[in-house]
Amino acid sequence: MALIELNDIGRTYDLGEVQVHALRSVTMQIEDGESIALVGPSGSGKSTLMNTLGCLDRPTRGSYRLAGEEIVTMTRDQRARIRNRQLGFVFQNFNLLNRTSALENVELPLMYGTKVSPRQRRDRAREVLDLVGLGDRYHHHPSQLSGGQQQRVAIARALVNRPSILMGDEPTGNLDTKTSREVIELFNRLNETEQITVILVTHDLNVARTARRTVAVRDGEIVVDTTDFAQAKAALESDESL
Amino acid sequence: MSFFDTLRTALRALRKNKMRAILTIIGVVIGIAAVTTIVSIGQGANRLVQGELQGLGTNVIFVTPGQKRERGVLRNDAPTLTEADADAIALECSAVRAVSPMIWTGGQVIFGNENWSPKEMVGVGPDFLQVRAWPLAAGSFFSEADMESSAKVCVIGQTLIGKLFRTTNPIGQTIRINNVPIRVIGILAKKGANMVGDDQDNLILMPQTTVRKRLVGDPLDNIHAIMVSARSMDQMHRASDQMRNLLLERHEIAPQEEPDFEVTDMEEVSSMLGIVTGTLTMMLSVIAGISLVVGGVGIMNIMLVSVTERTREIGIRMALGARGRDILWQFLIESIILSSIGGLIGLALGTALSMGATVVINTYKPGTEWPMVVSIPAALVAMGFAAIVGVFFGFYPARRASRLDPIDALRYE
């Protein structure tokens, strides 16, 4: 059984007069431990797909099974639980709580999860901050950290509950090339050493290149799903020439 | 999220916007302080009234003449009560502790070169002090023998010492009332002013027989009223009933006839006064309550602003696994903290204000001893009310926050 099974997923936004089909019909499977890049032009539906995978959004059609559990029919609270336990999010703009120390930002998911004592929480937060290389920045606030450091805090926060899937929505979008590379290397390292499934949304081909599998989305449908990056690149470039 | 974590989160959020939190709290402070002040001043007034009634004598019941139809004419002042009625009450009513007949008179009191008209000159029975729970400061009171012989003796209130005797010891001195020489045998303890501000010590007591026979010159044994004290507060109604029945029988009043006397117990008077002060307090409390509501609306306003401002934060928390109820509690507790702090400060301020008011009243209206009342239940009610304001006005913004869509919240700029 695959970790993620999407079957004929559709998402329609009802805007009154018009209906926007963000996702038309998406069927795919993701195995445990994979590293995937979701690519596609803006408006292609890749963010909607990401939000669906991340249990933030609910599809209007189809079936989404995560580790055997059907997500589509779940209540808000159940999905919140899945987000807390199974998924880790990293956003383009970091989304850290400001005026809150790195350590406390990382502790946040532990507060919403199972009962953990404050001491265990703190210890676990230090552990993941050490893992992302911020062992000397526990008490810094986001405003006192560089973009790359902030993103690493965000990654630590995503990892703190030992999720099976790590999701990044344009995680390098606000970073310079060098920091981008470091952050991507961190993702890859986590994928390889910790066996965490990594799913990244990106339009940076240099980022997409490092993933083992590339899924290209256009007009709410998957157009290419390949482990051969050249093929994906070709498909995207032909797309742009249109 | 555990309660402790929620509390910490809420406190942290409030600390980030200190000025705003303080201003919001002030709104609640004013409301709670107003309510507390008014309630405690109102209770002080009530206590004052009750104290006065107590001062009248414990568990006092008055029997006064009522209407009497005489040759087809209704009279309100018919002398229907007699000394024999008072004696019968003392003898036959088991719930009655002490009885005193009362006859009022007036006139000038002369001692040496001084003269004075006491506010009250009353003829009473030997048990009068017991009825009114009024001790003597010096000397002795009338005996049964004084009653029978209509002895020319009297007991004076404290005010008369200053007016007539100055430095002379009044006991054993002879004063003249309406040209009758009367010897002072006792001095009453000081009682002070009553709630209307009248000096209660400006009186002179004599045996009722002396007043009736030597001063008024009434050949009959009519008296103006009978003052009675019941054995205890609980026995008041029983005593009243016993007296009513006894007097109906003695005055031969048929069941369909109007009685020619009235029995008024102080409980009735006290509950009536209680209703008056209670209504006033209630009215003022409602007005003060309005300011509390205004404070609550202030909380709601600030919480709505806060929810809007922190939409992104809410989105982040939701993405990390916060459930709707986690968010709801976070904001609800924030507003409860605001209102509770406001409640505490308001309570302290209200207590201080009512203390101040008490001091001012007692200073500028000498003679009154307005009691300071800080009632624990009222304080608890005020605190509870503050918390309720927090929940009530915090709920809508908090629920709004908890119902946000995580994606919309994350995208919010």
Mean pLDDT of chain B: 85
Number of strands of chain B: 14
What is the subunit arrangement here?
A: heterodimer
Mean pLDDT across all amino acids of chain A: 90
Distinct helical segment count of chain B: 13
Folded structure, characterized:
The complex is a heterodimer of chains A (242) and B (413). Chain A has helices at 46-53, 76-86, 102-112, 118-131, 147-159, 177-193, 205-209, 229-241; strands at 4-15, 18-30, 35-39, 61-66, 69-70, 87-91, 165-169, 197-201, 213-218, 221-226. In chain A, the strands form 2 sheets. Chain A has a 6-stranded mixed beta sheet with strand order 6-7-8-3-9-10, sandwiched between helices. In chain A, strands 2-1-4-5 form a 4-stranded antiparallel beta sheet, covered by helices on one side. Helices cover 38% and strands 27% of the residues of chain A. The model of chain A has no long low-confidence stretch (mean pLDDT 90). In chain A, helix 3 (102-112) crosses helix 4 (118-131), helix 3 (102-112) packs parallel to helix 5 and helix 5 (147-159) runs parallel beside helix 6. Chain A is globular, with a radius of gyration of 18 Å. Chain A has a single domain, classed as P-loop containing nucleotide triphosphate hydrolases (Rossmann fold). In chain A, a hairpin with a 2-residue loop joins strand 9 and strand 10 (221-226). With 413 residues, chain B is an alpha+beta fold. In chain B, strand 10 (174-177) and strand 11 form a beta hairpin. The longest helix of chain B is centred in the C-terminal third of the chain and has 44 residues, at 266-309. The mean pLDDT of chain B is 85. Chains A and B meet through helix 2 and helix 3 of A and helix 1, helix 10, helix 11 and helix 13 of B.
Please describe the topology of this protein:
The complex is a heterodimer of chains A (242) and B (413).
Chain A: E1 4-15, E2 18-30, E3 35-39, H1 46-53, E4 61-66, E5 69-70, H2 76-86, E6 87-91, H3 102-112, H4 118-131, H5 147-159, E7 165-169, H6 177-193, E8 197-201, H7 205-209, E9 213-218, E10 221-226, H8 229-241
Parallel strand pairs in A: 3-8, 3-9, 6-7, 7-8
Antiparallel strand pairs in A: 1-2, 1-4, 4-5, 9-10
Helix pairs in contact in A: 3-4, 3-5, 4-5, 5-6
Chain B: H1 3-16, H2 18-55, E1 60-65, E2 68-70, E3 73-75, H3 83-92, E4 96-105, E5 109-111, E6 114-116, E7 120-124, H4 128-132, E8 136-139, H5 144-148, E9 153-156, H6 158-165, E10 174-177, E11 180-188, E12 203-207, H7 208-216, E13 225-230, H8 236-250, E14 261-265, H9 266-309, H10 311-319, H11 324-364, H12 376-402, H13 406-411
Helix pairs in contact in B: 1-11, 2-9, 2-11, 2-12, 3-8, 9-11, 9-12, 11-12
